[in-house]
Amino acid sequence: MNDDIIKIVKKLKSNSKTISTMESCTGGGAANLITNVPGASSVIKFSAVTYSNEYKIKMGVSSYTIDKYSVYSKETAREMAKAISDFSSSDYGVGITGKLGLLDPNNRAGDDNLVFICVYDKENDVYNDLNVRVNSEDRKDDKIEVLEVLFDFLVNYV
Predict the structure, then answer these.
(1) Which of 70, 81, 134, 146 could form a disulfide with 109 if both were Cys (CB 3.0 to 4.6 A apart)?
(2) pLDDT score, position 139
């Protein structure tokens, strides 16, 4: 995965493109891995960990979307990705939301082991949706699995 992240940062730099992330269940893991690459400051503009519905909404996700589709949905991931791209004026926005195996008493809807990722491409106004079914008993392993799917996609997309 680290080689892919280095390639992504190099591609973004060579194409003068930027990326920002709004993450929930991965807790900022995508931004952390990107910023581990020297020179990443020229490509990553902003990152937000919006673990609560309140802060997803404050960052631009519609409460209507959360109420209608649940916070754990493709629609919410899409709004997260576009909102962070718009907020930071980034070429790409990444939104990640989902459950990593535990019941959320504040958000009962949604599959307990499904994570939704969206990569929004501002230039082309394209939403790239990815789903990851996790099944580990270890949240750290589940987060790594989600991030591998994200970076496998990005290395071929950016």
Answers:
(1) 70
(2) 87
Q: What would the two tokens of residue 144 be?
A: 């790594």
Instruction: Break the chain into its structural domains and give their ranges.
Output: 2-157
CA distance 71 to 53: 7
**CB-CB contact of 91 with 18 (8 Å):** yes
H runs (alpha helix) in 25-73: 29-35, 53-58, 63-69
H helices of 61-129, in order, are 63-69, 74-88
For residue 106, the Cα-to-chain-centroid distance in whole angstroms is 21
- Asked whether the predicted pLDDT for residue 23 surpasses 90, the reply is yes
**In the block, which residue shows the tokens 């916070």?**
71
Beta strands 44-49 and 92-98: pairing type? unpaired
* 2-157 classified as CATH 3.90.950.20: yes
Run of H or E including 152: helix 139-157
Helices first, then strands: H and E counts in the chain: 6, 5
φ, ψ (nearest 5 deg) of residue 133: -95, 120
Q: Which of 72, 66, 70 is nearest to 102 (CA)?
A: 72
